[in-house]
Each structure stands twice: as structure tokens, then as C-alpha cells.
Amino acid sequence: MMRWLMLLSAGVCLIMDFSVSLSGQEQEPKAASDLPQLARQVQALLDKDYPYLDALYKHLHANPELSFQEKETAARLAKEMRQLGFEVTEGVGKTGLVCVLKNGSGPVVLVRTDMDALPITERTELPYASRVRVRNAEGREVGVMHACGHDVHMTCWVGTARVLCKLKDHWKGTLVFIAQPAEEIGGGARAMLEDGLFTRFPKPDYALALHCDSFAPYGTVNYTEGVSLANADAVDIIVRGKGGHGAAPHQAIDPIVIAARIVLDLQTIVSRETDPLDAVVVTVGSIHGGTKHNIIPSEVQLQLTVRTMKDTTRHQVLEAIERIAKAAAQAARAPEPIVRVHPGEFAPALVNDIPLTRRTVAAMKAVLGEDRVHPRPPVMGAEDFSRYAQAGVPVCMFRIGTVDPERVEAAKKGGRPLPSLHSDEFCPVPEPTIRTGVLAMTAAVLNLLGR
Fold first, then answer.
1. pLDDT digits (tens, 9 = 90+) for 103-154
2. How far, in Å, are 18, 47, 100, 183 from residue 200 at the CA level?
3. 406 CB-contact burial (10 Å; exposed 0-12 / middle 13-18 / buried 19+)
């Protein structure tokens, strides 16, 4: 830990004022005499502020809330931002927050965090682990856990706001810090936009966000230029049959058998209907049917997540899912299944603006060092942060490492695998992860708003 802090402290003194044309043509970095002192101030503020941020992180982790239920989380973040002098509007897009701070004329920079947690029972055994249990939208009791790092995102968001407020003499412009609900179901960004995010409040010139990386060492940042994350669709298939006695299957039409056939046949969409060089994922994440050993049910429900990189491929895959489901039912002389795509949970592919990403990467390299900021290929995850880009704003989302570097190296050599995001064992190392997130995001914002 001390070695990491010493490296960070040394690296932070290298902040530069990067002048980059957003036409895509990078210029040489231009040094500013006051920025080394500013960098030292940022590090000193983080040293003083971290105990507060650590307590905030552990509170958020222990008190997660599901999508569009983030009332207590939003109230806590609203309190934090009002104390800093932001003008806070609550209830934007149901439970979202918009926090505005004006500091003279200059660009408008949006910094986004997400707030919602996942219906997962935590198994990390941390002293601040979540023990929350609630009923979800379907009425089932579920555990709730920040298994995707949104608690880290919120803490870095507050930490960045706290630093920028103490450095108001060093930047000009408008900060629009938003706390977005329901990222995990792909509905929060859309809800905030439909509620006037870019009409009721200053429309940003740039939008920034960070995300945890469960496989990267803490103290590092990863980025992707252009297409970064996939289209994501949520699809339900309701397989209908004819109920009956388990000892007399010939008198029934068994939807469990039909559902099993559908699950297997869906795999041929990727293996036999899609170009091998065109990335596609079709995953059945939930299957429910039946109540007892000797009863053939009349219905089975499947829930799918579908990931694609191209819009044309997306339409092809969704058509194939419906065709395969109907064909399996017809072969069994069963009623036609219901195939439902949820438009409210669709998240378009995330495309990072290339000039903005290059400009942001240059600033983070100056702060963290060249060896701690790395490119990464696109992945099949999804993020509704992409909707802000579709609304006409250049966006950049980067990823921060969360894992002890020794664990990363051990896993690469065949040791214990690292838990992924959405795992019930995911647990970032708080201090270096949060420090890196605050420092990287502060550098990114100052690089856009600095005098």
C-alpha cells in the first residue's frame, strides 16, 4: 500500500494542461506553471478526505437498493451535494439527482454515477457486507448487493465533487453531477432524459463516467476508444403447454421439455447463424416452471439477455429467438409461445468519443503515469450511459482497477480465479480504488475546465 501511495504521490505532481482539439487532432501538451502546485493540493485533499470517503463507501455498500428504489441512497447523495453548495434537484427520472454548480463562464461538464444494486445475496464476509433483503418487482424475496461497484462509483463521484469545490479558483465553467437510477435494468438514463435532463438543466459539452474493473489491479485505469460496450436486450419467452399428471405425460403437453429444447436451440444462433467475427451473446439467465415433482405445469418462463455489437446483428438475433421458440412449440403441438422484448430495458452500444477519450487519457497519464493507464478491447457488457451519447453529447467512460496486484498476478498463473462483476464474492479493495477514481476523474474534469 505504501509503495502504491508513494508512486501515486510522485505521479500526481506531473499534471499538465493539455490543449487538444476536439476535431480529433491532438496537439502537444502545454505545461502550466501553477499545475504542479495544484496537483499537490489534490493529493493533500485526498489524504485529508479519505477517512470520510471510506465511511461513506462502507455505508453505501451496507445499504444497497434495487433499481428505481434508490430513495435512501439518493437522499444521502443529495445531502452530500447540498453541503458542497450544489443546486440539487431530486426525483429526476423517478429517483435520480441533478446537481449543478456554476463557476463563471466556460464549458459544461457532466459527471455521472449510477446508484442501483443487484438482486444478489452477498457472500464476501466483509464486516460491512450487505444483509439487506427485499421483495423484487415480481414479489420474490431477494438479497441485495452492490456487486457491480456502484458504491465505489458514488464514493468517487462525491470525492471528486469535494475536491473540485475546494479548487474553484483553478477552473471555470459549470459542473452537472448526476446520480442515475436503474442502470442495471437499462432504464435510468432514458428516464432522466425523458424527464428533461438536457432541457431543464444545462446541456453538457462533455459527459464523463467511470466504472469498476474486477480483473484489473488497483491504481490502474483502462480505456477504449470508440465502441466500448455492447447493445443489451432483455427478452422473455413464455412457453405454454398443457398441464397434467407427471405419471401420464401422454395426456399433457410438457412445457419443460419444450423450454429445454429452446435453451439448446438458442445456442445455434451464435454457433450457426452469426458471422464468427461478429460478437454475439445469448444467455438464458432465468428459468421458472412447475410446483411439484409429479405435476406437469402449463407454463415455463425464460428470461434472456442478448448482447450484440451491431444494430443489424441485433435485429437478426431477436428475429431468430422468436423463430426458434415458435418452431419448438409447433414441433410439440403446443400453443404458440409469447416472446417479449423489453424496450425499456434496452441499452444501446456505448461508443466513447475518440477525441474526448484521447484528451482524457492524456490527462490521466500525466497524473498516474504512462504505465498505469492502458487500452482495453471492447467487451460484451452494457451501459445505458450510452444514451447520453445518442442525445448528442461526447462521452467517455473509463475503468478503474479494484484488485490487489498480487491477486491479479496469481490468477494469471493459474491461482484462484478473480470474482467478476455481478458475483456474490466481488469486493474491491476500497482505499486505492477510490483514491485512483477520485484522482483520475478530477484530472479529467480539470483538463476540460482548467483555465
1. 999 999 999 999 999 999 999 999 999 999 999 877 889 999 999 999 999 9
2. 31, 37, 11, 21
3. exposed
